[in-house]
Amino acid sequence: MPSLFSIAKLPLSQWVSDGVNWLTQNWSGFFNAIQSAGQTFMDTMTNFLSAIPQPIFIIALALIAWLTTPKRYGLPTLIVLGLALIANQGLWSDLMQTITLVLTSSIVSLVIGIPLGIWTSKSQKAYAVVKPILDFMQTMPAFVYLIPAVAFFGIGMVPGTFSSVIFALPPVVNFTYLGLKQVPESLVEAADSFGSTTWQKLVKLELPSAKPSIIAGSKQTIMLALSMVVTASMIGAPGLGRGVLSAVQHADVGAGFVNGIALVILAIIIDRFVQKMNTDPVTTPKLPKWRKIAA
Amino acid sequence: MPKVQIKHLTKIFGKKQKAALKMVKENKSKNEIFEKTGSTVGVYDINLEVNEGEIFVIMGLSGSGKSTLIRLLNRLIEPTSGQIILDGKDITHYNKKEMLDIRRKKMSMVFQNFALFPHRTILENTEYGLEIQGVPAAERKARAEKALENSKLISFKDQYPSQLSGGMQQRVGLSRALTNDPDILLMDEAFSALDPLVRHEMQDELLDLQQNVQKTIIFITHDLNEALRLGDRIAIMKDGQLQQIGTGEEILTNPANDYVENFVEDVDRSKVLNAESIMFPGLTVNVDSDGPNVALHRMQEEEVSGLVAVDAKRRFAGYITSDNAVKARRENLSLRDVMSDMPTVKPDTLVADIMTIIYDAHTPVAVVDDDMKLHGIIIRGAVIEALAQTEGDGQENA
What we know:
The complex is a heterodimer of chains A (295) and B (398). With 295 residues, chain A is mainly alpha-helical.
């Protein structure tokens, strides 16, 4: 009986390299199109954001935060102080590039992830196929995605976005799946009993019921995209991540901290804005108290 | 034509349906079939008819298949075999779109746990059925508000379900079902989750509502008292099969088998049986034509101490005791002059209400209708006998 170890080493790495090479050669037109379209889109976005004068940007954002939740001053204060600090440290243009990178990767992840979550919750087969792929994506070290990203898209923003999307996609799919699976059976039955179509059931019952879960997943996805900023800077993605990377390379604690705190401020602001979407209609004051009766 | 007809309706859950069907035909128990085949018999060979405008109660314990049966009616559960006929049309093979239409226009359902959508306000919940039909916003709002007004919930229309008590939530559930103006209401243990007082109140409201709107209501319950209170007719189920269909009184007085008999044993008969079911034909004397001697002779012959006095048209007049008849003969009076009072009840008065009357009365109680026509009399012994029937049986068994 041949020992398991007597089998020659499988050329696994060769297979993967060949596969990626084949893709790079045969799909180059496709990748180039994405590369140039993505680059144009993100350049435009960065230029647009950078064109807004700093004080106007800061005040407008604080005002939006204040208008969407009146009588809460924490977030507006954080926005004003935090962004002023970033501007003061001369990191404003890096910040704009990072926002572009994070927003683009997040939006692409959500646009792919939410429908994928819905699909897996509706189809057992889809779930059986997608679930292991997601687990794989989540556990594979993020650095590994950088290699094919460079092969496909070269260096810069677009490969950074590509690897961020792969890294950030799983939570929103999983949470969407979970949220939809947790819609109580009795409510689904009620919707059916009134003659809802599948689409009506999804839009009027299931998605609203799953909203807290979907938003929680989206938040995680956005945070993962943000955390990928530093990693993506290794393949030339610009922004605050590059500052962190360079600080690491030069063992410059001070610069590392300054760039890091800028990322933290950005993370908190994004997190709080996403959280706003998750208000509970019951506890959000809309009616005078006397009309609420004890259950 | 009956509103709903069910013919040989069978539902088996699981894979080995044929084997299960064969076993159920051999009268094997549900458990045995499950152990052998892994399939569960939901309902088996149900035949029944529901008439327009009646409250038809389907009663059984948990696992009896009653919830499956009601879901087969709007095909939330697809039948294995048999037919569901609505307004004379077989809807068993209607396609998806036709079924949506039936659910939207013909049948609405009320659920045990209310099943209100937590992210929608009371008004939005009530509008739901119309919304998915594509009714314009203004019209559906008006109709939903009217339904909420009828159930006195209009002031809560902008609240969310979790802010309302159970009873109120179920009123919303009922309003939501009624807003569609369906012919048929399917009520699945609709009041079972409510506390007894609220449940009683809701039962009253449903009966009032039925007086006004005359829907065909199919009501599922595991509570016999509720079934007897609401049901024009009652179907009793066990292990997915029908045991008996009849009015509450038919089921109480003439149970089809041991199962039904055991089932109805604990029921509070005084709240179900009425005057008509416990009365005797009364012995009467015609006070317009008969004299004291006729009355005394009849009393002697029948060995009673009193007669019900009626007029020439057999309308109730009063009561003649033997003492008074003797007095009339001695003093040469007419029977009308010596008549005494006698309490009266209507034929549909419940035994529970007769009890209080009969304990205070010195005479039997006369059962008369709205035209004062005498239907019969009730004596104290008959009331006690009617109430004691079940307890007596129980003691024999013990």
